[in-house]
Design brief:
Blueprint (H helix, E strand, L loop, with lengths): L4 H26 L25 E2 L2 E2 L5 E4 L2 E4 L5 H17 L1 H4 L7 H11 L1 H5 L2 H4 L4 H10 L1
Antiparallel strand pairs: 1-2, 3-4
Helix pairs in contact: 2-7
């Protein structure tokens, strides 16, 4: 029997995907959940480079994406938080530019009030979900630290 390991792995992966699709369909029917295929996407969290088999629901294949936004957090495929951190960095930069007239050098506000505005407007942007993305690599967290 001369069967390549890669063909066995591929067959096993395909069978696992088929079983997952059947289980998913049964679970959705049991809980009476209707999936909106146009708003749904498929992401596999892994450090491997190869892609997972396609996931389908109602004979519609869900598109596989590299990152997905859920509850304001951007999850990328490798869970290294780079996408989330760069997007939040851009968001804090934009918000700081919007309120620069209020917290800038030429503002008549006292330092205490400027700090209060910073803590009320800018700090919540980058601290949201820090329990999750705070463990990212130093190079990724340094992106956000430079914005402070």
């Amino acid at each position: 029997m001369n069967v390549k390991f890669s063909s066995i792995t591929h067959t096993t992966t395909c069978l696992s995907a088929l079983l997952f699709n059947i289980c998913l369909k049964n679970w959705l029917q049991k809980w009476k959940i209707k999936v909106n295929e146009t708003k749904s996407s498929h992401i596999t969290f892994t450090l491997r480079k190869d892609n997972c088999p396609a996931i389908s629901t109602n004979q519609t294949v869900l598109p596989q994406v590299e990152s997905v936004k859920y509850l304001g957090l951007h999850f990328d495929r490798r869970l290294n938080w780079k996408v989330h951190i760069t997007k939040k960095r851009k968001q804090t930069d934009l918000k700081a530019k919007e309120i620069n007239w209020l917290i800038g050098k030429k503002s008549n506000l006292s330092t205490e009030n400027k700090i209060l505005v910073y803590k009320a407007v800018i700090k919540p942007i980058w601290t949201y979900g820090i329990e999750l993305w705070g463990c990212a690599s130093k190079s990724n967290t340094a992106i956000m630290q430079r914005a402070q």
